[in-house]
Design a protein that fits this description.
Layout (H helix, E strand, L loop, with lengths): L1 H73 L3 H27 L3
């Protein structure tokens, strides 16, 4: 009767071990499935945000391009401003000469 009892205990231990491994495997599988689903949800959110970012980036780029194209219409070019300053200085020099001539009596 002892050998049957010993075999019975080892089979019970093996059965308990198999059940424990089965439960752990099931829990691990469920955990990995939940994690996989979470990762997929996050990936889908990231893709949606990237699409929205692309649209926003295009809008900002278009606004900057339109601003860059409108700048020459609204503001004076640096070279043109330099030429204007030279012309104004030349006119003021002529006015100063005329004032000096009038002051000296040489009209």
């Amino acid at each position: 009767m002892r050998p049957a009892f010993g075999v019975n205990i080892s089979m019970d231990m093996q059965l308990l071990f198999n059940i424990a491994i089965g439960i752990l495997s099931t829990l691990a599988g469920w955990f990995f499935k939940v994690m996989y689903d979470q990762i997929r949800d996050i990936e889908s959110e990231v893709n949606d945000m990237e699409d929205k970012h692309d649209v926003d980036h295009r809008l900002v780029t278009d606004k900057i391009n339109n601003l860059a194209l409108s700048l020459p219409e609204k503001y004076v070019n640096k070279e043109d401003f330099g030429n204007l300053v030279k012309v104004m200085h030349h006119r003021f020099d002529r006015l100063e000469e005329k004032i000096d001539d009038m002051k000296n009596g040489r009209s």
